[in-house]
Amino acid sequence: MFTMNEPKLHDALHRPTRSVGSQIARALVASSTLCFVASAHADEGGISFWLPGQFSSFAAAPGEPGWSLPFLYYHSSTDANASRLFRRGGVLVAGLDVRADLAIAAPSYVFGTSVAGGQASVGITGLFGRVGAETSAALTGPSGGSLSSGQKDTLESVGDLYPTASLKWNLGNQNFMAYAMAGVPVGSYEVGRLANIGTNHWALDAGGGYTYLDATKGHEFSAVLGFTYNWENKDTDYKNGTTAHLDWAASQFLSEQLHVGVVGYFYNQLTGDSGSGAVLGDFKSRVAGIGPQIGYFFPVGRQNWYVNLRGYYEFDAKNRPEGWNAWVTLAIPLGS
Description:
The chain is mainly β. It has two helices and 15 strands.
C-alpha cells in the first residue's frame, strides 16, 4: 500500500503564488472527478457497457475535499457496412449506423479524511439523451420472424445509473488510483428496438490508474486500465463477454490556464459473448481511438472552473461500428 504524504498539490492550493504549478493544483479541485461516465448503448451489437475515452487528463490526481458537479456533453457517430451482421435488442441486422447525443451529470464527493492512506471519493452518474440507429436490413425480429427492408429507430430518454468509488494516492509528481463502477439497469430499454439507452443488465467495472503531473514544468500524462464483467440480459438471453480497456492522455500547459495535448484509448473483448441470443457466436469486439484535446481553467468567484474539449477518431474496429466521438466537459467545484 502506498504511503500518503501531505500532497504537494494540496499545499499549492494555499500558497499566494501565480505559478503554473499553483494554477494546476487549484484546477484539480474541478477536474479530478471527471472519470466516470458509462455507455448509453446496449451491449449487444459490439457496443460496450464501457464508453472508451471517459478517462483522460488528471485521472489519478487527488482533488480538494468536498462536492463537485461535472457536466458533460457527448456526441458519437459510428457505422458499419451492410456486409456486417449485428445483434441489437434481440434483432439480427445487417449494417448499422448509430448516432448518440448525451447530456451527463456526475455529482461527486471527496472525503477529507484519509482512507487506507489515500483520498476516497464517491459519486453517481446519470444521463439523458437521444440515440438514433439505422440498419441496411433487419434479418430476424425478436419473435423469429423474417424481415427484408432496413429500419430506423430513435429514442429520447434517460439512461442507467452508475455509482462509483475511487481511492487516490499522491507521491510527489506520481499519482495512483483504484476505482470501481457499477451499472444499475434502470434506463429505457425495449426488446426489438434498435435504439436503446439502457443496457437492461447489471455490470461491474474496476481497475487502476496513474497520473504523472509536474506542476512546475506543466507536463502531464495519465493512463487508466480497467476490466468489465457483464451479467446476462435476461430478456434477450444475451451475455456480453469480459472486456479490457485502456484510456490515456498526455498534455502540456502553455500558460497558467491553458493546456493542450493528445488523448486515446484501446478497447478489447477478452471472452466471447454467450447465451441463446448470441446467434453470431462469441462476437469478440475491439477498437482503438486517438485525437486532440484542449483544456482551460477559469475563475468564477473564489473557485476555479474547468472546461475541456476532446475528440477521438476510431480505427482497427472489429465486430462493432466505427467512427468518431467528441466530449465537452464543464467541471464545477462546490466546496466542502
